[in-house]
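Render this sequence as a predicted structure.
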Amino acid sequence: MDPNASAALSAYGSLIAAAAAVVALIFTGIAAVAAYKQTRLQKQIAEDAAQPYVWVDMRPDTKQGGLLNLIVGNSGPTVATDVTVGFEPPLQMPFEDEAGHALEVLRRGIPSLPPGRTLVWNLGVAWQIVGADSPKRYKLTISAAGPFGGLKPLTYIVDVDDIRATAAVPDGSLHLVAEAVSKTNRTLERLTDFFAAVERTRRRSTEGPK
């Protein structure tokens, strides 16, 4: 074979091998970047799932339906720290003492709020608050920290007027009340039968044998 042709074929083969190596390197780089992004995504998902979830609401009291409560809770799986809540405009209620105390606590910050914990402040009678000449819509901004650092501030609107036409019904039901009354009646019947039997026994013992 012509030496020049042999050299050309050898150079061509080397060029193909180099091109294949470059292509393989590109695909390896793409796979590495994808794996890195996937790892970061999984880590972010795991961290987000382990963060606390702090919320604030104004709702009727579950025991005394006519009262309105301000509630701060943590529905996440970990402890929330440095919890602060801002109201825009500032919270105004007919009973300034209760609202003022709640605002001071939330402005100063709650050092820690464990999972499942709720803090409740009574703001007064719901219909008086709804009918009062004060703002009804409040923009809430919640700031807190979790085990992986500060949380992104959560902002949303709470409208007190939303409860205007709702039923002020405490927890429980008439069915449960009826069951409790029925059980009480059965207990009273058994007690009545017992005391009647005791009375019959007493009379027989006092009358003596005939």
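Summary. Residues 88 and 139 are 5 Å apart (CA to CA). The chain has a mean pLDDT of 78.
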